[in-house]
Amino acid sequence: MNFKTRLTFSSALLLSGLVLTNFSLKNNRTVYAATVTDQKQTVKINYSGGGGVAVWNNYQAPQHVTGKYLANNTNWKSFKVATLDNQRKWYNLGGQQWIDGQYVSTNSQANNAPASDNSQYQVKETKGTAHITYSGGGGVAVWNNYDNSRKITGKYLANNTNWHYFKIATGDNKTWYNLGGNQWVDGQYITENQEYILPYTYYSQLTPTFAPSACEAASLKIAMSVKGIGNNLSVKDVIDKMPRASTPDKGFNGDPYKFAGGKFITIYPEPLAAYARSLGANAFNISGASEQALINEIKAGNPIIVACNLHMQDSSSYHVSTIVGYRPGAFLIADPYRYANESGKVFWVDMNKFMRIYNYRDKKAVVIR
Fold first, then answer.
1. Where is the signal peptide (predicted)?
2. Is residue 335 domain-shared with residue 274, that is, in the same domain?
């Protein structure tokens, strides 16, 4: 909950019987019997003194001020009402948050006004693409926050445009999307885009460095570009730094600058992930991942290096490429075995075909998160 609080106050200041500091009531304070009822409504703060109305942790002794104060003429959601035997009322704002009813009105003006959401929003960090759907004039407003303290930034998003989002806040039966920094958009104007294309940079294993057997290194370079990792490394650097071994379960087991000549040369996911981590990537061996698991990774903005066939053709040529996008029924593949100016280096492949080849290659995969 984002309460409006006083910036400064004196620890001894009294405002109409409200003390603006934390304290506990004495044990000799009269305790009244109370009736507590569930009642959802909007309450309005009516307070003519300085500062604000204190929020308490309970409606009767023992109780203390929580340190939060509500400004005059603000509206808040209330969930319960406690009525004491002396007919004094307290209003619950969620959890252990109570305000004295003498400073509250529940008239129609309060109930029709926008209320602050005093229940906590759940904010989740997640990446995706938001599609603006808006039939009115102008555009959809960008706000500086998602709760009732929000203000319009002065920016507006046009209908039918797409934007990357980084967080989702849910609460008060609403959803807000964060477009980076203090930029939030009301979820009622958003549909999540069904096509996800990661911000990759294509790299070739054939030019400017000719390395016909270095598809793993070039695919890794493409994957790292999505996360902005290893920008100071060339494809040749990534090739040359890759660990060598006599077997692919330990490292790369051949000469990347020569054709394989009928030999099976590669590096398996576990040592490849370890090597990627040594370059600063948050890499994991996810071999065996299901179709849905792969989709979820791409939706989350994470590229995946996979064992496959050359150009995803139904052939026996072992190859490694990078998944850099998803749409229903297809993955977007960046295949490093193309020249930089050649067509067909990045293409969509039917999901059924992809899964057939992926399964044939024993579901070998490395994700960079």
1. 1-33
2. yes
pLDDT higher than threshold 90 for residue 355: yes
Reference 93, options 50, 55, 149, 52; nearest CA is: 55
Contact criterion met (CB below 8 Å) for 291 and 355: yes
pTM of the model: 0.54
In a domain, 65, yes or no: yes
Provide the angle, in degrees to the nearest 10, between the axes of the packed helices 215-226 and 269-278.
Answer: 50
Identify the CATH number of the domain in which residue 352 sits: 3.90.70.10
- Whether residue 1 contacts residue 32, with contact meaning beta carbons closer than 8 Å, is answered with no
The CATH number of residue 64's host domain is 2.30.30
Residue 187 placed within a domain: yes
Are both 237 and 285 inside the same structural domain?
yes
CB atoms within 10 A of CB 207: 14
Q: Residue 329 region, left (φ>0) first, then alpha (ψ -120 to 50), else beta?
A: left
Residues 223, 283: Cα–Cα separation, whole Å? 10
CA distance 298 to 308: 17
pLDDT digits (tens, 9 = 90+) for 115-173: 555 456 788 877 778 889 888 888 999 999 988 788 899 999 998 888 888 888 888 77
Cβ atoms within 10 Å, residue 209: 20
d(CA 312, CA 334): 10
152 and 262, same domain (yes or no):
no
Domain count, the chain: 3
Q: Is the separation of the CB atoms in 76 and 118 below 8 Å?
A: yes
Range of the domain at 316: 215-368
